[in-house]
Amino acid sequence: MSDEGKCEVCNREATQKCGGCHVVHYCSKEHQKADWKKHRKVCKPFKILNDEKLGRYLVATRDIKLGEVILQEPPLIWGPTQVTVPVCLGCGTAIKEDNYKPCTKCGWPVCSEICEKSPSHIPECQYTVSKGSKVCISTFGTIHPTYQCITVLRCLYQKQFLSDIWKKLDRLQSHCEERKISGKYEKDRIMVAQFILGFFKLRNIFTEEEVLRVCGIVTINGHEVPLTTPSHVAIYESTSMFEHRCSANCNKTFTDQGSILIKCGTHIKKGEHLSICYTDPLWGTANRRHHLYESKFFWCSCERCTDPTEFSTYFSAMRCQNGNCTGYLLPPTFIINNVNEKLPDWKCNKCSSVSSAHHMQDLLDRIGQDLQDLPKGESRAAKDFIKTYEKYLHNNHYYLTDVRFALTQLMGHEDQRGLPGLDEDDVELKARLCQGLSKLIQILAPGETRMRGLVLYELHATIAELGRRGGDPHQLTFALHEAKKVLQEAAELLKNEPACLQEGKVYKQALKNIKEIDVVLMTLHTNIGSSPS
Ligand SMILES: C[S@@+](CC[C@H](N)C(=O)[O-])C[C@H]1O[C@@H](n2cnc3c(N)ncnc32)[C@H](O)[C@@H]1O
């Protein structure tokens, strides 16, 4: 890659660019080598730009390949989520009566001596010691309001004592004005700011506005990290610059140590915006938009939100109930930019009959309630739900998709017999569900790899099982080759998932299964003489 610029080392005319970021120039390989120790810390395949609507956002400075790790960084700050049961302030896991001891200095519960000495715990420990009396927490397992202050307090500590981290936090978006309008600012003022300033006696150090700005920084930039039970929240520097899209081209995961890892989920071209999905990509459009507005204070108008059919998947559509009509109802748009604005009426794409938005919402709420009440872990109940509601919902509807995903993860795992315990129809049903879901996820959320990885893992098992049932070694050989291909794709999608989470465990199992399939294929090859590759 060559193009004119000044050498990063000697400032002479240079025609070579760094292959990692395609931003920095060098006049020679020697100068590139000499600069690498410094440049590697900032060498990323993106640059930060600014726009009136998005604020800062990231753009690829070169083509980025599917699966490439774009960014890995440790948190600037981490702490408990705003609403939480008491957790250890050293490691973030839930505290129970029998697994804690109060910190000897400040009284906040921790789960071990190591956690008491954790650098993460210093801020609240130091502020508690300074105020002159220990904290006493004696109820566990239920939400404890005192913890609301911890993550904000940890940021404020950076402001007072650690200016390097604070400078990075201070640059982040806080949406104070929007939070004032929504009432969230006032709620944080009473629940967090007044508590922090009063309880820790910090009125001489921080103003209420300063605390409230930090509340905003945590709300807008905090990522829920599922590595602990319950999850904790963490703020990352460069990751905070990723814009949101409902069909994002990047996805995030975490390392076992708590760093965030952003991976490329599609083939990204130089100049494309880099995006992650701030919400659940498998929610319907109205719910995603509402959630983004409530939590991040913007109305999404990405290409998926502006297309009511969601790329012709009809993910939010209802079946027309007008006589024998086979059409689907959708509103002409899901784009409303005001909480008080109502969605327009829904219209059938075949017979043009109209249903009020209120009626459709009522129907969706009732089905949603049934979904919530569905007994967890019972494939029979899930199948009944699908049978009842496929009469009302488009086949790809998000409620059906939700239940189908659960079903793929349940069927064949409900008892000791595993997949061999299912009758043939059920194995075939599970295979069809997995195939359908994998396709749908690829269209709606191409960057989403975790869920597709889990679905493909289940799919490989059904392909192998159906091959085994055929009883014919040639058929089995063919099926195992197919299963192996699907499994390799699943492993590729899950390879960066942390070992402590279900996805990481499935990844490990996938690698084991690939080896086992190879052994069976070898044996089949020896017996029937077909190629093992
Ligand atoms: C984590 S920050 C992202 C970085 C931010 N743009 C900045 O300059 O600091 C999230 C905020 O960025 C803006 N944003 C992100 N994605 C957006 C989108 N698709 N449409 C509109 N605003 C968006 C919203 O203001 C949102 O609250």
TrEMBL record:
Residues 7-43 form the MYND-type domain. InterPro entries: SET_dom, SET_dom_sf, SET_SmydA-8, Znf_MYND. It holds the Pfam family zf-MYND. It comes from the Eukaryota. Residues 44-279 form the SET domain. GO terms for molecular function: N-methyltransferase activity; protein methyltransferase activity; S-adenosylmethionine-dependent methyltransferase activity; zinc ion binding. The keyword Metal-binding applies. The keyword Protein transport does not apply. Keywords: Metal-binding, Zinc, Zinc-finger. This is SET domain-containing protein SmydA-8-like isoform X1. It comes from Sitophilus oryzae.
